Amino acid sequence: MPIYIQTKQHLNRLQDNMRQLGLWQASPPPEEAFNSIEPFAIDAMSATEWLQWVFIPRMQALADSRARLPSRIAVSPYIEEALKETEGLGLLLAPLLELEKLLQES
């Protein structure tokens, strides 16, 4: 199966799991939050906001356009630390870990 399709499957699963855990938001953060230059927009967004409004859309856009996907991503350590108190964290991390593995092996 092409890497682009697999990438989108992992992203869709991440999105579904965020919804299941009640972490999916109806409204985006304020516009200025998207101007952050900090890694993961840590100064302007929560970890789940960054996943929903930055990471997932950017990765989906790369996959949709069949652009070069990053071969090294390390999102899961940040999410694991930032959301260590979140119930169901394993459900959130599973698709991220699978995506990281997929991209590193490609």
UniProtKB/TrEMBL annotation:
<dbReference type="InterPro" id="IPR036814">
    <property type="entry name" value="YqcC-like_sf"/>
</dbReference>
<protein>
    <submittedName>
        <fullName>Uncharacterized protein YqcC (DUF446 family)</fullName>
    </submittedName>
</protein>
<dbReference type="InterPro" id="IPR023376">
    <property type="entry name" value="YqcC-like_dom"/>
</dbReference>
<feature type="domain" description="YqcC-like">
    <location>
        <begin position="7"/>
        <end position="102"/>
    </location>
</feature>
<dbReference type="InterPro" id="IPR007384">
    <property type="entry name" value="UCP006257"/>
</dbReference>
<dbReference type="GO" id="GO:0044010">
    <property type="term" value="P:single-species biofilm formation"/>
</dbReference>
<dbReference type="Pfam" id="PF04287">
    <property type="entry name" value="DUF446"/>
</dbReference>
